[in-house]
Write a structure and sequence with these properties.
By secondary structure, the protein is of the alpha/beta class. The protein has one domain: 3-Layer(aba) Sandwich (Rossmann fold). It is built from ten helices and ten strands. Helix 1 links the parallel strand 1 and strand 2. The termini are far apart. The structure holds NADPH dihydro-nicotinamide-adenine-dinucleotide phosphate and 3-Dehydrosphinganine. Pathway: Sphingolipid metabolism; Lipid metabolism; sphingolipid metabolism. This is 3-ketodihydrosphingosine reductase TSC10. InterPro entries: KDSR-like, NAD(P)-bd_dom_sf, SDR_fam.
Amino acid sequence: MGRFALDNQVVLVAGGSQGLGKEFARKFHQEGSNTITIIVSRSRSKLEQATREISGEQLAQELTGGLELARGSNRILFSPCDVADYVQVERLREKLDSSSLKPTVVLLCAGGSHPELFKDLKPEELELGVKVNYLTCTNLAHVAVRHWQSAHLVFFSSATAFFPFIGYSQYAPLKQSIKALVAILRQECSQHRISCVYPGNFDSEGYALENETKPAITREIEGPSDALSCETCCNRIVKQLQMGYDDIVTDFIGWVLMSTDMGLNKQNNVSIGWPLQWILGIVANLIIVPVYMLICKFQIRKWHKSCEKKTS
Ligand SMILES: NC(=O)C1=CN([C@@H]2O[C@H](COP(=O)(O)OP(=O)(O)OC[C@H]3O[C@@H](n4cnc5c(N)ncnc54)[C@H](OP(=O)(O)O)[C@@H]3O)[C@@H](O)[C@H]2O)C=CC1
Ligand SMILES: CCCCCCCCCCCCCCCC(=O)[C@@H](N)CO
């Protein structure tokens, strides 16, 4: 299972065309050695652009079947693939196979939210929430555990998996599902290292987009999670992975939220200061959480009232 390293890896980044996924690709490509990075997402143009930006080369190299790659230096390749479609993931796996590439690290970073009240969401947006946030994970994880023995899987959930709240109905339930999937895979697939990141806000393309529809109350509740830069967020995650942690948060409020949700999740996985989290969690669940939830309820009630006033 070994230590997390940027060197001598074959890294597959789902959702690597922008935001945090792209930041990870950059990190592996620029700081690793003898590492091959493959970024994957739906949009060819975004992938080409990201590959050119990271490699500094004029031409972006696509992963094709039967590719011959000389090892020794770092390479970055792209491959368009809708990871929510199993057939496309299988095709990606075949291309990797026929180029003799077996991923050693798989970053399941595809995802995104469209915050809005449940009643205002369109049916397509509901469906996209499930596909982009959950199906991408099950599909890629399934192919990985079947074909890439001992690959390190890194899932990207969200702090909303510990505390789902108003505005995130299209998103938080799927991020909670990732957490459940991770717990089960840790029991079933013991030859794989399985990490799960629960980020707070960070400033990506996706974050800018979600802020366009985010209700004021959602913004208010998530206030304690100031948006980090992608770079800071990525560095914090890499550091924790290197220290051997497998349940990872990116800010203090994320750490507090995780503490309220330790229970049956703590088996062989570890997080920073987990004994302290455990004790804090007990105290918080007894005293702080009920008070906070009461405050939260009033906050939400006030917001509903102010909306009613606006429409009448
Ligand atoms: N930003 C934030 O504040 C937070 C984000 N997160 C999570 O962290 C992860 C990264 O977030 P962030 O960098 O903001 O995301 P972005 O929205 O900026 O980027 C998402 C990436 O996923 C790709 N993607 C989306 N759907 C698919 C698909 N079906 N198949 C393949 N690729 C896909 C996109 O590319 P393309 O469009 O080309 O497919 C893009 O590269 C996500 O899982 C997100 O939910 C968690 C907590 C906070
Ligand atoms: C003990 C009780 C304390 C309670 C404090 C509550 C504070 C809540 C902060 C929640 C932060 C959630 C960030 C979500 C980011 C995300 O996933 C989106 N940006 C989607 O991309």
